[in-house]
Amino acid sequence: MKILAIESSCDETAAAVVEDGRKVLSSAINSQIAEHRKYGGVVPEIASRRHTENICAVVQQAMEEAAVTRDDIDAIAVTAAPGLIGALLVGVNFAKGLALAWNKPLIPVHHIRGHIAANYLAHPELKPPFFCLVVSGGHTHMVEIKDYTDLHIVGRTRDDAAGEAFDKAARCLGFSYPGGVQMDKAGKDGNPHAYKLPAPKVEGHPYDFSFSGLKTAVINTVHNAQQKGLEINAADMAASFGYTVAEMLTTRFCAAAEEFGHTTLAMAGGVAANSTLRSRLQAECDKKGYSFYLPPLSLCGDNAAMIGSQAYYEYQAGHLADQSLNGRAAMEIDTEF
Ligand code: KG4
Ligand code: ZN
Questions:
Q1: Which end of the chain is more exposed for a tag (fewer CB within 10 A), N or C?
Q2: pLDDT in tens, 49-87
Q3: How confident is the model at residue 5, as a pLDDT?
Q4: Measuring CA to CA, which residue among 211, 192, 194, 193 is closest to residue 202?
Q5: What pLDDT is recorded for position 117?
Q6: Closest by CA position to 243, among listed 170, 176, 184, 173
Q7: Where are the alpha helices (H) located in the chain, listed in sequence order?
Q8: Within the chain, which residues score under 50 in pLDDT?
């Protein structure tokens, strides 16, 4: 089964053709990052406008690179939640129009389920059940993947997402948007123990996270230094921040894995590209004898191939939409459209 998938939930306009949920025939991405960088973050209206301008060309590119025509496509999939509503609606409406014109089934996909499915594209042997740490710009969840479309959240952030914390700390240190990847790079030359940062716990909820205190600690340290006319070593701060985040995520995720009896672990989302987190979690899984799955860097950030993968399993489960499909800015990962 060949699915044409569309993703436009944030600042990437993407389309892909994916076969049987596992084989990427094409994956086209038009990133708007350079434009949003001028403003220090994603400007929702600009994102919607760029999606509108680019979506036809991106879908055409995906079809051409996969060397398929409309007759080869069995279904149209689209990210319908969660994300920036104006951005989502561009993809949703385009997919609805295409499904109507081509007379194909329409499959709505939850963006974060898509991030998790990036692992299916990279690891043909990976099948549920497994336990996944989802770390993106908008989400930080520990999720039990009981089956492809049966997910259960074990823990979550109570405030900022991990990526959001990276980006805000980065901004304060003078790195350009999106700061996560710059922090990762800068931290490689820094001392992870130079600054002692807090790793706040959520009272009574051992598998939840709080990142806002950590972010505020960076901001306060930088401001205090500025007031005293002292220099902050950005590489040391980036390394200390990356180390603290990786420690917090790794220890809680592995403790939850142990409690819930999971020995197959995975990670997904934009922050899964972080080198410190990747190696720290890998080392812990090696120590405990767990199998650990990671998407390649190319599949960690937003793309449509991951949406095409998850769409295949949503289709198998009968999760289709009709022409009344709408976008949703917020939606829990364990609910259906
Ligand atoms: O999953 P994603 O592409 O978009 C959302 O669904 O939110 O995640 C984007 C987030 C941004 O906050 C970005 O700074 C962060 O992922 N990110 C990183 C790295 N690469 C991307 N954070 C830390 N280290 C990285 N190498
Ligand atoms: Zn994403």
A1: N
A2: 999 999 999 999 999 999 999 999 999 999 999 999 999
A3: 99
A4: 211
A5: 98
A6: 184
A7: 33-37, 44-65, 85-102, 111-122, 162-172, 179-187, 212-227, 234-260, 275-288, 305-316
A8: none
Global confidence as pTM: 0.97
Enumerate residues 6+ apart whose C-beta is below 8 A from 253.
131, 133, 142, 265, 281
CA–centroid distance, 274 to ligand 1, in Å, is: 8
- pLDDT score of 74: 99
DSSP output for 234-279: HHHHHHHHHHHHHHHHHHHHHHHHHHHT--EEEEESGGGG-HHHHH
pLDDT at residue 203 in the model: 92
Looking at this protein, which amino acid is placed at residue 263?
A: T
Considering every ligand atom, which ligand is closest to the CA of 179? 1
Please give the single-letter amino acid code of residue 270: G
Domains in the chain and their CATH numbers? 2-116+301-316 (3.30.420.40), 128-298 (3.30.420.40)
Ligand 1 mutation pick, 116, 136, 297, 310, max ligand atoms within 8 A of CB: 136
CA distance 132 to 285: 13
Q: For residue range 204-227, what is the model confidence (pLDDT) as tens digits?
A: 999 999 999 999 999 999 999 999
Q: Is 296 exposed, middle or buried (0-12, 13-18, 19+ CB in 10 A)?
A: exposed
For ligand 1, the distance from its centroid to the CA atom of residue 167, given in whole angstroms, is 8
CA of 21 to the centre of ligand 1 (A): 24
Q: Is the CB of 187 under 6 A from ligand 1?
A: no
Tell whether ligand 1 has an atom less than 6 A from the beta carbon of residue 295.
no
Q: What's the start-to-end Cα distance of the chain, in Å?
A: 22
Cα 240 versus chain centre, distance: 23
CA of 154 to the centre of ligand 2 (A): 20
pLDDT at 165: 95
Is residue 141 within 8 Å of 134, Cβ to Cβ? yes
What angle (nearest 5°) sits at the alpha carbon of residue 69, between those of residues 66 and 75?
85
- Residue 120's closest CA among 317, 307, 250, 335? 307
